[in-house]
Amino acid sequence: MAITEKGIYPLKAIRKYSGNYLAAGSQKSFSDYYHQQYDGALFDSALRGKITFTYYNLMKDKSFVKMYLVPCRNMMINFDKPLKDRVLNVIDESLVQRGFLML
Fold first, then answer.
1. pTM above 0.85, yes or no
2. What total of structural domains would you count in the chain?
């Protein structure tokens, strides 16, 4: 998470993210949000300031903020049904209307 908080990503990853951004229907250029530095990209400080990074335990913690995006890649594949239901309920309580759950 420390790397993500700094907002620095390798250019190879940025090319992939840019393609995904455009495929999602963006009208703006992904490069509007970062500056290229050597072999990486540094995301704009104004954008980084709008993002909260925190550790969160979906199995124990209750919803504490409203989120626009909840990334849970490969997280629930080993959960049993009751735990999946509990986690999905917490996520549902946490997401703003039209927020995204990324699995």
1. no
2. 2
